[in-house]
Specification:
Radius of gyration: 19 Å
Number of strands: 5
Helix content: 55-70%
Structural class: mainly alpha
Distance between the termini: 54 Å
Order of helices and strands: HHEEHEHHEEHHH
Strand content: 5-15%
Strand order of the largest sheet: 1-2-3
Number of helices: 8
Number of domains: 1
Shape: globular
Length: 202
């Protein structure tokens, strides 16, 4: 299991009736992937720059794709640029992977048996592993969950302080990207409201 897969499963498990906005989840998944690559020692950070190491085949297909997509020429890619590039539609890719593996299934509607509703997690070893990691307050998963609003704010001795410097850099980048995404959406909503007022003559 990887942090990114655990995060995807946890997001579906903790708030099944209130699915996370995909853009936010995708950014966090990209951050989780980068932390997994750091743990696998296939990358290091030089400041906020992601420096690839030797290519090492990884057992997880999506994480292997992430490793293969690294920018391998100086000045390399910043953490922020990675989050926005790699995070594009990433939650959909993880959902599709979980569906292929039978980790999630689409619930059939009783009155419309040939139409499917929202996806639901199946009972699987991966789901149990993710739940154990979440319940145990594993530092990185807890910090990402806090950033996404899946849990309350971490205290002064919370998850972020228990991670290493490189992971902290990535987690801080995820928080910044989520704030930037929210700011962009708020500006869009304000502009759209102003546009609507013009057409209504308000």
């Amino acid at each position: 299991m990887t942090t990114s897969r655990d995060l995807m499963i946890t997001a579906m498990d903790v708030a099944p009736g209130h699915p996370l906005e995909r853009g936010r989840l995708s950014l966090a998944l990209a951050g989780a992937e980068l932390i997994d690559l750091l743990a696998a020692e296939t990358v290091t950070l030089d400041g906020d720059r992601i420096v690839p190491g030797l290519r090492v085949p990884l057992s997880d297909r999506l994480l292997n794709e992430a490793e293969e997509s690294l920018v391998r020429e100086s000045p390399y890619e910043s953490v922020a640029d990675w989050l926005w590039r790699r995070g594009r539609n990433l939650s959909s890719a993880y959902l599709a992977a979980l569906e292929r593996e039978g980790q999630v299934a689409r619930r059939r509607r009783r009155r419309l048996p040939f139409r499917t509703g929202r996806t639901e997690l199946t009972d699987s070893p991966d789901r149990r592993t993710a739940k154990e990691r979440w319940t145990a307050d594993e530092p990185v998963l807890a910090a990402l969950g806090t950033a996404l609003g899946l849990r309350g704010e971490a205290g002064p001795d919370g998850a972020l302080s228990e991670t290493d410097d490189a992971a902290e850099e990535v987690l801080a980048g995820v928080n910044d990207a989520l704030l930037e995404l929210e700011a962009v959406r708020q500006r869009h909503d304000i502009e759209q409201a102003a546009f609507d007022n013009i057409w209504r003559g308000d």
